[in-house]
Write a structure and sequence with these properties.
22-stranded antiparallel beta barrel; five-stranded mixed β-sheet
């Protein structure tokens, strides 16, 4: 049965409810009935639905209900712990529905996607997690990735940015089990495709594959983990037309706080004096900065305030339709998204240089039955997106200019309106926005998949053949307008001009980013039941080819097999094996076989443990096996020796001449034994339902061992080249936990949920550790451990410096500098000197050791509310680059520096212009807790009354308001975002939070 969870109920239902379509009818009104169990007992708490947008929860103790429907409508009635039933609305106004008890129901109507197949939830022994996007709020942001944070145990979602068209997020799995690339791969409808640019309404569900039993199917391809993205399909028994409209604003915050010219001048003077130099700003100049008496000669700029708006607009429109008949099912979607940038003063009569992004998406998924045996599915999707940047891709340059230019560098405009500048500062932010033109990048993507399935029951009952082929292509066209401006230094007696002013012209247009990818799967599936025995099997061959004009094709191929057996729908056994290869490895070591086994036992179906009010369902499951990862980074064909011809004037000199000859140089050292990483996984889990299915959850304990991780070989540095070998090993252990609680309290429906993942990753082997003292070795430490000096406060006096180990990280050490501990010397013991031999490995890193999410969904009458939190723990942030940022390394945090007057209470060391290595070296002084809990999403909605909607022939309409990335709770004591600490600094786009409102209607 097609599954869904009504978005208006949110997470109210843990199991999905299928809804059959309304047939043509001439009679409509209120129809009543009663819901009972198979033994005749009335059931309250059941959900009655007609169409997917008209639902009612049975609250009457006698199981009675009444719902608006039309003659011919088909109702679906469901309650957790019972099998769903359908009932057609006939001429009578009252009817009775009996719900048979399910097989110790574990969400039996929940269909869980697996690689090129599906299973009922109770059949799954693997460690996988599934989330229906119908539970996901509709938020007007460019990508849906970040909205998934905290939604699934074992899926760590880290936001990567917030700029228009680049506010996506990265997916990571359980822990950090490798030194190289470790992000999860997104497979859309089973094929490697970008997920970040899909409209979320195209997606039916998100499934995370976490153990070898789920990943071995792919052989050596995706050992880091997989996110299966299943797009929506049509239904033969439902028709629906839906329209979404959303609008919102994005508000920047937590940006770097710049100094005004007066504070900058006096702090710069102080830093010079600390360095033993003379100050350069006299009292008259500082007073002019302070009073603003002459802003042309003594400018006082706040660039961020002058050139960044307080808010920018975002909007999204989606039109979708789905339905069909017995022979054809369809889903179609059109969407438009637009996001403005934050730059002020960017629009001229000739062009708009503000950052911006807009995207059109379309999708058409059609499945049709050619005859009773042959089914053909065709999925076609695409998008056209336009990203705009000021100048010649100068968004980063402009942001860097706004954050890092001294406030007194120049007046933005001179008295005559010309752009201000100087020999040192020849970039003017207003000039970039109004006179550097813009660059536009138009990207077009087409993705097509055809899936053909032929039943072979006439040959072998339960056997079918399947062919799946996809064709994806994309390209980018860049264009725009170009112009340049001059800046004038008018501070002297004679103005000095810098840069060359040029007229407006077309920017060079070009095609780029062209890529093509094909992937084919073909094989057989077998699904047969023999009494109390059930067998499901698959055998498929796969081949993929990726093409870009500037590189050789990337190819891979393999075989995948799967066998699942169950007895009495209680005992489950599974085997998965993947045999695959990659051309990136030596010809004689190109293929590998990766097997995995799994088993499950529904204990609650046993006679000694029948379902009761306390324990409704209990399943034990385990898996063990191997998966591979060819995502090892590095160059192409690392097993080959490559030389490059040098034609750029370098090379070698022979004879008595001084001119270098054309020559060749060694690019890399070949490793003929290079191979993939092998992940061996043990997973043990339990799924349970308690209190008559009110409380449900699962717990997984896992141990991952990854061998063959690439590490640098210990070869002499005199060779001038490096060699990587498969000598690294990491062991990861951890726990995944998921809990859900649902309760019906009269008219109030309440759902509480939470999930968490706790990991511990340890390096068992890594090259380059020989001869290192134990305190500097990575072995035994967490993956990504920090290598730092151990601080011991700040020197308060010269006497304290004289009595401490000698600090040699910089030329001079004076009071106000960071004090470091003497950990070891040449022999690994303290030697009275603090140098590189005193750096230590500590179990701290930027990647969190655990992450979690929790929230609630409540509905009362026509009103509903969603609150979702997300957070991480066991993470540290290095704030050295944040505190020492801004113009010449000063910002508002510099006001908390050490001075003789603040000795003993200062947060940070003294200021300096040069010779600052002692205070900027990597040390635990600059590490702060990066743990946080974020209010990720809040949404309030109201479903309009049916009586009002019937006048406009609408099935449903819901209006709502909400916020995304609203606030965080952390221990930083700094005005930075804990997830994106670099946002609003350096050259990074500011961190933004989104406020939005929308309406969803169905017809």
């Amino acid at each position: 049965m097609k599954t869904f969870i009504n978005p208006l109920l949110g997470l109210l239902l843990l199991s999905s409810t299928g809804v059959l379509a309304q047939t043509k009818a001439t009679l409509s009104g209120s129809f009543s009935g009663v819901v009972t169990s198979s033994d005749g007992k009335p059931l309250s708490g059941a959900v009655v639905a007609v169409q997917e947008v008209r639902t009612q929860t049975v609250t009457d103790a006698e199981g009675r209900f009444a719902i608006n429907a039309s003659l011919g409508d088909v109702l679906v009635i469901q309650k957790k712990g019972y099998l769903a039933q359908t009932k057609a609305v006939g001429d009578g106004t009252a009817f009775r529905v009996e719900l048979p008890t399910a097989l110790t129901e574990a969400g039996d109507d929940d269909i869980v996607p697996i690689p090129f197949g599906t299973r009922k939830k109770r059949e799954v022994n693997m460690a996988i997690g599934t989330f229906s996007t119908r539970n996901l709020p509709q938020i007007p942001v460019a990508t849906a990735n970040a909205t998934l944070a905290g939604r699934l145990a074992g899926l760590y979602v880290q936001q990567s940015g917030s700029a228009p068209g680049a506010d996506g997020a990265n997916f990571f799995g359980r822990g950090a089990s490798t030194f190289g690339p470790n992000s999860l791969r997104a497979l859309v409808d089973g094929v490697l495709r970008p997920f970040n640019d899909i409209d979320i309404n195209e997606v039916e569900s998100i499934t995370v594959l976490k153990d070898a039993a789920s990943l071995a199917w792919y052989g050596l391809r995706y050992g880091n983990g997989v996110v299966l993205v299943t797009t929506r399909k049509g239904s033969a028994t439902r028709s629906n037309l839906q329209f979404d409209v959303q609008g919102g604003i994005q508000v920047p915050e937590k940006m770097i706080r710049p100094l005004n010219s007066y504070d900058f001048g006096r702090l710069y003077n102080e830093a010079l004096v600390n360095d033993g130099s003379q100050p350069i700003y006299d009292e008259a100049t500082l007073n002019a900065y302070k009073t603003g008496s002459d802003l042309f000669r003594f400018p006082d700029n706040n660039y961020a305030e002058s050139f960044l708006n307080k808010q920018s607009a975002t909007q999204r429109y989606v039109l979708s339709a789905d339905g069909g008949s017995n022979g054809v099912r369809y889903f179609a979607l059109l969407s438009y998204f637009n996001q403005d940038g934050l730059f002020k003063n960017a629009k001229t009569d000739d062009f708009n240089a503000n950052m911006g992004f807009n995207r059109f998406n379309f999708r058409g998924n059609v499945d049709f039955d050619v005859n009773k045996n042959l089914t053909v599915g065709l999925n076609v999707a695409g998008r056209s997106e336009n990203q705009r940047q000021p100048g010649s891709q100068e968004a980063g340059t402009l942001l860097n200019l706004l954050y890092n230019t001294p406030p007194n560098a120049f007046p933005i405009q001179n008295r005559d309106g010309s752009y201000g500048g100087s020999a040192q500062f020849q970039n003017n932010p207003l000039g970039i926005l109004r006179d550097r033109g813009f660059t536009s990048f138009v990207t077009r993507v087409l993705m097509a998949t055809i899936d053909v399935r032929e039943k072979l029951d006439f040959w072998v009952p339960g056997l079918s053949a399947n062919i799946n082929f996809n064709y994806d292509i994309q390209g980018t066209y860049s264009s725009g307008l170009n112009r340049d401006y001059q800046v004038i230094d008018a501070t002297g007696a004679n103005p000095v001009i810098f840069r060359n002013q040029t007229p407006l012209s077309y920017r060079s247009a070009a095609f780029g980013g062209t890529a093509q990818r094909n992937e084919a799967w073909a094989g057989f599936d077998y699904d047969r039941r023999f009494g109390q025995h059930s067998v499901k099997a698959s055998l498929k061959a796969q081949r993929n080819v990726s093409y870009t004009p500037s590189q050789l094709d990337f190819r891979g191929q393999g075989l995948s097999s799967r066998l699942d057996y169950s007895f009495k729908d209680r005992y489950y056994f599974g085997f998965v094996g993947g045999y695959s290869g990659s051309e990136n490895f030596p010809p004689d070591k190109r293929y590998g076989f990766f097997p995995a086994v799994s088993a499950g036992w529904v204990v609650s179906d046993e006679s000694f443990l029948k379902p009761n009010k306390l324990l409704s369902y209990l399943k034990l499951r385990a898996s063990y096996g191997q998966a591979g990862s060819s995502d090892i980074g590095g160059s192409r064909f690392p097993f080959e020796q490559f030389f490059a011809r040098n034609t750029g004037g370098g090379g070698y000199t022979f004879g008595t001449g001084f001119s270098a000859t054309t020559s060749a140089n060694e690019v890399s050292i070949a490793n003929p034994n290079i191979t993939w990483e092998t992940l061996t996984t043990l997973n043990a889990g339990v799924d349970f339902h308690l209190f008559n299915h009110a409380l449900t959850g699962s717990v997984d304990y896992f141990v991952n061992n990854r061998r063959g991780i690439l590490t640098p070989s210990a070869i002499p540095s005199v060779l001038g080249k490096t060699l990587v070998v498969n000598e690294g090993e990491v062991e990861s252990k951890g726990v995944d936990l998921t809990l859900n609680y649902d309760k019906q309290l009269g008219r109030l429906s309440l759902s509480l949920y939470g999930n968490a993942t706790i990991t511990d990753d340890r390096v068992l082997a890594e090259n380059g550790q020989a001869g290192l003292p134990g305190y500097q070795s990575t072995v035994g430490r967490i993956v990504g451990s920090r290598f730092v000096f151990v601080s011991d406060g700040i020197f308060q006096s010269q006497a304290e410096i004289d009595a401490s180990p000698r600090q040699v990280l910089s030329g001079r050490v004076v009071p106000g500098d960071i004090k470091y501990k003497d950990i070891g010397g040449v022999n690994g013991t303290p030697d009275g000197i603090v140098d590189n031999l005193d750096r230590v490995r500590i179990d701290e890193r930027d990647r969190p050791k655990s992450y979690f999410g929790f929230g609630t969904v409540a509905r009362y009458g026509i009103f509903d509310m969603l609150v979702h939190f997300q957070g991480v723990a066991g993470r540290t942030i290095d704030i050295q680059g944040i505190v020492n940022s801004g113009p010449f390394n000063f910002n508002q945090e510099s006001l908390n520096r050490w001075t003789p007057e603040t000795a003993g209470t200062a947060l940070y060391p003294r200021l300096g212009i040069s010779d600052r290595a002692n205070n900027t070296s990597a040390s635990d002084f600059w590490l702060v807790p990066g743990d946080y809990v974020r209010l990720k999403n809040v949404e309030l909605g109201a479903t309009l009354p049916k009586g009002l909607l019937s006048r406009y022939r609408m099935k449903n309409a819901r209006v709502y308001i909400g916020g995304f990335n609203l606030l965080s709770f952390d221990k930083l004591n700094l005005d930075i975002d804990p997830e994106l600490p670099g946002a609003g600094r350096g050259s990074a786009y500011p961190y933004v939070k989104t406020f939005y409102a929308g309406i969803r209607t169905s017809f």
